[in-house]
Specification:
By secondary structure, the protein is an alpha+beta fold. It contains 24 helices and 23 strands.
Amino acid sequence: MLRSPGFAVAAILTLGLGIGANTAIFSAVDAALLRPLPFSDAERLVQIWETHPSFPQLAVAFPDYLDWRTQAKSFEQVAAWGYQSFQIAGVGEPEQVDGSIVSDNFLSTVGLKPALGRGFVDGETQAVLLGDALWRRKFNADPAIVGRSIRMNGASFVVVGVLAGPQILPKDVELLTPFGTMIADSDRTSRLHHVVRVVGRLKPGVTIGQGAAEIRGISARLERDYPATNKIIGTALVPMAREIEGDSRTSLFVLLVVVGLVLLIATANVANLLLARAAGRRKEMAIRIALGAGRGQIVRQLLTESLVLAGAGGIVGVLLAIAATPSLRVLAEGRIARAAEIAVDGRVLLFAFLIAMAAGVLFGLVPALAATRADQNAALRSGGRGSAGNLHRSLRAGLVAAQVALAMLVLVGAALLTRSLMRLTGVDPGFRVDHLLTARVALPEDYKTPEQVAGFYRQFMARMTAVPGVKGIAMTDAAPLSQRYGSTRFAVDGEPTPEAGRFPVGDAMGDSPNYFELMGIPVLAGRGFTDRDVRTDDAEPVIVNEALARKFYQGNAVGQNMILGVLTPKPSRHPIIGVVADTREQEMSKQAEPTIYFASYGGFARSEVVLIRTTGDPMAMAGTMRRELALLDAQAPVSELRTMEEIVDKSLAGRKFSVLLISLFGALALALAAVGLYGVVSYSVTQRDREMGLRMALGAQQGQVLRMVLGEAMTLTIAGAAVGAVVAGFAGKAIESELYGVRAGDPESFAGAAAMLLMVALLGAWIPARRAMRVDPVVALREE
């Protein structure tokens, strides 16, 4: 390494880039997919879902949960939790936070212990456990908070403890309270309302399959006993680790494969460097063999040198990974599971060591074997100069072609995902995104009737409409793409009554009458809502989206009726007064679901989303909105303040994360392949300077020599690109689930990747090719 510092630095940096990329991505994979959950016997924790033909994962009806809890024998414990919003008053500014109501055995089921205080006890109702972030933000991390009372939702709750460290619930859950009186009586007794999530801890030795079979058996009995509500309601058990990782698995797997390919390209580069260096050591190896060294000894020595290089490259790679980890955590936050746990720890260091040693063997073995197979007599006679021989040239050409093929594979993947993201960002969500501020406004418990709630929101909307810079204001139950939508079963009036449980399901939204106008959602048939349509009786009119009208009314829904409350004793008939265009309410990548809209100013829902269309920067209106709200009621908190553009951007965050990293690694793969090609062409020119001089002496023109060298380089590039394209054609099917609007065999992606590869390869070969055409024939012929 000291005798050849240029070679050593080039090899170590090349390896460091490949090992560093793999180590960094593996740290994310380890945190999200491989590392055990930080709970006791976490492998026995499962999420238990109910299922429906329209919903592969459905929250559980509270009575069904109680039956599972009392009847299931395969589980140590079965616990439940549900979402609940809380208004905290009396401590600084009023604030609305997302929390969870939990069964009294929830903490013991999942294996959580409070960092301060205690958990809940049986029968406890007005108690609260604060999350660590809320405790620090709202209560200044005061340890004396335990035992004190705080006001939430108009009632007094005693703080019994603080939860810190790992959380099993979604990140936005900032406090826990017992079910107590927080679950409505109708939800406690009705199997219609699916309101809780269920977690189970299997007994030791019981498999997930056995637990799932028992839950299915209980569900089958419930279907027989309650056919009106439980018909075709199934169950599904998911390991808690898989539940928490969510959709991270596919994208992380793709990233791991991509960085693995980058490491292979780096390894091939170093192998080429070693082959070039071996040409200068041919006489040394011939003398060693002549003095009695066996081929095995030569191979061991060269592999030892390779492993030293690999070790140094591994150290550089680990340092690069450590430096990149904070940025990776920031990029991954909210995009992959457990992003905060990404770190270069002992497991990641072991991975880095193993791939460094594997790379050392891989790039060192081929040059080592080639060195022992060379013609030793010719090497001794040549004095150490001259051609490296056909074997070395073929190996180096083959390695370059392999690099190009691997780079083509990475570039095609990056092109497919980039085009998919471009298609997705170009999708029309069905509503205007620009100049739109969204915020959730919550009213205190003082507003007890629908008339009081509606009166407040009407006043607020009137005040905001008069503010300069406000073009309009509307309200809705949930902002588009926020995942906070409800659903309801319905029936088509006049159609045969479906079998129990097989009623169609539609999303249900309550919106102010001017919602469609403000959002720019066109009314395709009939009319929109007016203030006269804001009613609470059993015949209030509804508007449906195009997807529902097309699927259930053959496109002619206006003037017909829809039956709601189909599983209740008194179903209600609602006239359809309009059909509106489809919108992407759930995800940008999903087609619109059948949706039913009701005219509402909040009703009993004291928490509503306010949408404000502005003439300028939407966030500049946030302060004015808060002031106008405080003038009406200082105890009404505002939360989830963001622009619609932010919401749309966040919905695409996971895809952008994958595209960004794969594009970076694609650029790295392209650069390494170009450097490899440059090295091979440059070395070839150096070794063939006498040949080039002879050609020119015999009349070859400089342009002919240039074309010859470039032609040889392009032949390697085209051959490698062709092989890479074939492999990419098969491998592309593995990422089809990540694509939108683009097929795995998209010709434009393949053509773009090939064109970029050829252009960069031409650039890499151009400099040594120009050097070849400038060889002085007299000097080249005189050297020998």
